[in-house]
């Protein structure tokens, strides 16, 4: 059984990739305009997001994010949305929430994957 791949041209691949990228950009713009969530640090690279700037210097990344977006902002790092609270007054609101509103279990899963078991918040 032979499959005809005549439709698989660079032009068609470009159209598909361009369409997917346009959808990504429209989605990012819609989130920025209509969402009540913290502002998102936009990246032109869909999957990697802000990984490079975060990886080079995390402290400068946080300072830049606070300067551009305020005390709380979200960044896409390797396809994960991470929200940063860069001022202590934000911490009280976060840590005083009930577990039904914010799940520490989700945070612990991420922290364990980064630092390993038995370190920091192993729950």
Top keywords for this entry?
mainly alpha, 3-stranded mixed beta sheet, elongated, 123 residues
Low-confidence stretches: none
What distance separates the N and C termini? 54 Å
Q: Approximately what portion of the residues adopt beta-strand conformation?
A: 5-15%
Mean pLDDT: 81
Secondary-structure element series: HEHHEEHH
Proportion in helices: 40-55%
Strand order of the largest sheet: 1-2-3
> In DSSP terms, counting alpha (H) and pi (I) runs of 4 or more, how many helices?
5
List the helices and strands and how they pair.
Layout: H1 10-34, E1 40-41, H2 51-56, H3 58-69, E2 72-77, E3 80-85, H4 88-95, H5 104-115
Parallel strand pairs: 1-2
Antiparallel strand pairs: 2-3
Describe this structure in words.
The protein is elongated and about 60 Å long. The protein has helices at residues 10-34, 51-56, 58-69, 88-95, 104-115, and strands at residues 40-41, 72-77, 80-85. The mean pLDDT is 81. With 123 residues, it is mostly helical. It has a three-stranded mixed β-sheet. Strand 2 and strand 3 (80-85) form a beta hairpin. It contains five helices and three strands.
Summarize the model shown.
The protein has 123 residues and is mainly alpha-helical. It has helices at 10-34, 51-56, 58-69, 88-95, 104-115, and strands at 40-41, 72-77, 80-85. The longest helix has 25 residues, at 10-34.
